[in-house]
Specification:
This protein is an alpha+beta fold. Helices cover about 20% and strands about 10% of the residues. It has a domain of about 60 residues. It contains 1 helix and 6 strands, in the order H-E-E-E-E-E-E.
């Protein structure tokens, strides 16, 4: 009985020591989304409507400067007017929640 108790205690100590030496996984922070109005520069953390009722475009997408609501994931030509799509980038100082 004493040997069984000692063996269980030894196994428990080894398990605890091993778990303390295990490398901790780095927690990846999910990038926050920023939606930006192409016409006025309004930014928000939530999709929705901007003050002049144009659709907010997610950063990194492409939009047509002339046509309201034309958005694409890749660069190219606007399907309505044929103009080159512009990449939406975050303005430096106009962030609102």
């Amino acid at each position: 009985m004493k040997k069984l108790f000692t063996l269980c205690l030894l196994a428990l100590i080894c398990f605890v020591a091993q778990s303390q030496n295990a490398p901790t996984q780095a927690v990846k922070k999910k990038p926050s989304l920023v939606y930006i109005c192409p016409s006025c520069g309004y930014t928000s953390n939530k999709p929705g409507k901007c003050s002049d009722h144009r659709t907010l475009v997610q950063e990194g997408y492409y939009y047509c400067k002339m046509c309201d609501g034309v958005v694409a994931k890749k660069s190219g030509k606007c399907t309505k007017c044929g103009m080159n799509m512009a990449k939406m980038e975050r303005p430096k100082d106009k962030m609102k929640s």
